[in-house]
Amino acid sequence: MDFILAGLAQAFGLLATGDSATWSAVQATLKVSTCSMLMSMAAGLPLGFLLGYFDFKGKRPLRTVLDTLLALPTVFIGLLVYAFISSRGPLGDFNLLFTLGGIAVGQTILAFPIVTALTAATIEGMDPHLKLTLISLGAGRKNIIATCLWEVRFGILAAAVTAYGRVMTEVGISMMVGGNIKWHTRTITTAIALETGKGMFANGIALGLVLITIAFAVNLSLSFLRKQ
């Protein structure tokens, strides 16, 4: 128990003194997770809306595939992205291997099915009378879509928060595609794994505290928005 308390004390010291290695990992994590979330939201929200709002042939198999992708292991995604962006892969000319951009690509693949599936489920759970009411009031297609999106805004926010939490806490993609290079591609999770393995328990706790604080801040923001 003593080494845990000592680790906590050292962890607060590292954060308070602005340890450069610790904050470099935090900065890299925020950069890459924000970038991947923006890309997954840009692609996943429209597709999720289409899947939830419209009925069409092949919708059920498509939803089955999408739901299956929710369980994709991060190591498999890392392996897949590695194969494509390595020097021998079809996207090797972009030099994305061992860069934050390469990690962002992998994390986008991880977050995309989460955003899409949860958005579609939110749209499907919408009040079925809303669309009929809007049509009876003479609303146009654009107004109907905008109103529907506004009605389910908290569900979409919850989908984004869920995906953000998944992206921030993954290890497999960051480790395989990023290479865990200090000052460049080392994220919070890969740094925790490395420092703990080296016996640097305080560094691991410090980074864990930052990770929990970010997750708490994101959830607190969602709760605040729900009250507005």
UniProtKB/TrEMBL annotation:
GO terms for cellular component: plasma membrane. It is a multi-pass membrane protein. It comes from the Bacteria. It holds the Pfam family BPD_transp_1. Residues 26-222 form the ABC transmembrane type-1 domain. Keywords: Membrane, Transmembrane, Transmembrane helix, Transport. The chain crosses the membrane at residues 36-54, 66-85, 97-123, 144-165, 204-225. GO terms for biological process: transmembrane transport. Its main location: membrane. It is found in: Cell membrane. Belongs to the binding-protein-dependent transport system permease family. This is Predicted ABC-type molybdate/tungstate transporter, permease component.
